[in-house]
Amino acid sequence: MSACLDIRHLSAVLPNGQRVLRSVSLSVQPGEVRALVGESGAGKTMIGKAVLGVLPKSVRIVEGEMLIEGEDLGRLDAKARRTLIGARTALIPQDPLTALNPSRRIGSQMTDRLVRILGWSGERADTRIRQLLDEVHIRDPERVLKCYPHELSGGMRQRVLIAAAFAAEPRLIVADEPTTALDVTVQKQILRLIAQLQRDHGTAILFVTHDLGVVAKISQRVSVLYAGKVVEEADTADLFADPKHPYTRALMAATPRYTDPLASLKPVDESVLAGLAAEIVAADQAWRASHG
Amino acid sequence: MAEPLFSVRGLKVALPDMTRKPLIGRAPLAEILKGLDFDLPKGSVTGIVGESGSGKSTLGRALVRLIEPSAGSISFEGRDIGHLSEAGLRPLRRDLQMIFQDPMSSLNPRHTIFNIIAAPLRQNGLGDRLKERVAEALQRVGLPQNFASRYRHELSGGQRQRVGIARALALAPKFVLADEIVSGLDVSTQAQILTLLEKLAAEMGLTVAFISHDLSVIRRLCQQVIVMREGRIVEASATDALFQNPRETYTRDLLAAIPLPEIDAGWLQAKAPT
């Protein structure tokens, strides 16, 4: 069985020639949650955007392949690529308020994708959305469908977007920091919900986050990213039992833990950052040497 | 117990509720803080934790008198400052400083770091030895002296937050309100800023109110904790006592909802509070 998502040696550059993705390889197996963890500027959101085909124009992919269920996106023309991505993937965004159109009711926004991109009939889309709202435990779908986004709480908006993401049975969902803007109790509900729907529907998820706590709870596999480079990848259980890369260890020591206040919140050691910088320079030199 | 710097009794704050404002006329008042009683002991760091809408930021703003309480008293060094006029507050401003959540919006983009730190010094009659004072402030937060001539966009997030701390502490205040000062930062930077604040608070004997939604951060930094929900204090006690033996269900729910960076297969299954 081919991987749901397979990224091989993906490199991307800015117009000034600076590499922002450095030969990234990672795969997401069917039905698996792969966490992509890193600090700001690590390129984790960029990888998500590359998969969904929505990279900003200034970022150019210069090398590598992306395969969705064995189909190489690079070999398809633009239209076929959009159709494939539209049919097999979906996004759960970070900020549900900006992802929703403020001047349209929830209902029509949710059915939009099904009707306009996948060509469903309005009636079928409507039935499906109600089904999904039930799955995300929204008890009064009639009211919610008629609401405007600002009339719902942050948690409710995120539920709506989760329902919309699963509605068309995508094979792969990119979840980009879906709980970062939420209160901690709501975050737990949303993580629970994503995990439950993911299991029930057998959907693979590329879960982008900066929080190692979330990684530990939601994912089976994890890639640690720094400056657009995967510095470590492992089974999640193995990563927490025995982190190999000094940066992973430093990140873990920096993450606050109320159960162990003295051993957590350790500033990242300068030597770790120097080591990372050297690693990046060496990788870039080798890359330039082999690419003229 | 040290004598309190702040002693707050029956504090209520009501603000206009703009979501219910009629087209013409005033917005009705919504009660944000519904009667709070607590003390902030001198030289201590107190964590104020709660979810969005709990009133924790409003409480902070009332303490530094950016807003006037609708009822109750706020006594600072034994004197009720709850209803002082702006002129009456003037001499106190130097003692009540703030560090903000987002240094990007709280640092003026057109001013050099020198001017940003110097402005409140001039305002508060500390305009003599300005260069010396700014240099001292930069050094205190571990920034190189040549940063004085830079602008905010030339700094990283962590460096900007250091400037925010330098500006507040340059005035040698008695009280510092730190409102979510690390929530916009990466974990590695977060740890540096917290360690810095911890060190400076101890060195300078500051009384700090540290507002945060993150109980893990509060446990590390604060000596006591106030847990807030919907404008009321749910639980207030010494940090160790609160974490080892939380009395209230709400506090336990908050703790249970934190995803710790360790494998725990049962965590997601455990019913989240609703």
What does this structure look like?
The complex is a heterodimer of chains A (292) and B (274). Helices cover 45% and strands 22% of the residues of chain A. The longest helix of chain A is centred in the last third of the chain and has 21 residues, at 270-290. Chain A has a single domain, classed as Rossmann fold (3-Layer(aba) Sandwich), CATH 3.40.50. Chain A has helices at residues 44-52, 78-88, 96-99, 106-117, 122-135, 141-146, 154-167, 184-201, 212-218, 236-241, 246-254, 270-290; strands at residues 5-13, 19-28, 33-37, 60-68, 71-72, 89-92, 172-176, 204-209, 221-226, 229-235. Chain A starts with a strand and ends with a helix. Chain A has 292 residues and is α/β, with parallel strands linked by helices. A 6-stranded mixed β-sheet of chain A has the order 6-7-8-3-9-10, with helices on both faces. Chain A has a 4-stranded antiparallel β-sheet with strand order 2-1-4-5, covered by helices on one side. In chain A, helix 4 (106-117) crosses helix 5 and helix 4 (106-117) runs parallel beside helix 7 (154-167). The mean pLDDT of chain A is 93. Chain A has 12 helices and 10 strands. With 274 residues, chain B is an alpha/beta fold. Chain B folds into 2 domains: 1-91 and 175-184 and 206-257, P-loop containing nucleotide triphosphate hydrolases (Rossmann fold); 96-172. Chain B is built from 10 helices and 10 strands. Chain B has helices at residues 56-63, 86-93, 103-106, 113-123, 130-140, 157-169, 187-204, 215-221, 239-244, 249-257; strands spanning 4-16, 29-41, 45-49, 71-76, 79-80, 96-99, 175-179, 207-212, 224-229, 232-238. Chain B has a 6-stranded mixed β-sheet with strand order 6-7-8-3-9-10, with helices on both faces. Chain B has a 4-stranded antiparallel β-sheet with strand order 2-1-4-5, with helices on one face. In chain B, a hairpin with a 2-residue loop joins strand 4 (71-76) and strand 5 (79-80). The longest helix of chain B is centred in the C-terminal third of the chain and has 18 residues, at 187-204. The mean pLDDT of chain B is 93. The A-B interface holds A 39-40, 154, 183-189, 191-192, 195, 210-218, 236-237, 240-241, 250-252, 254-259, 261-262, 264-268 and B 51-52, 157, 186-188, 190-192, 194-195, 213-220, 243, 253-264, 267-269, 272-274.
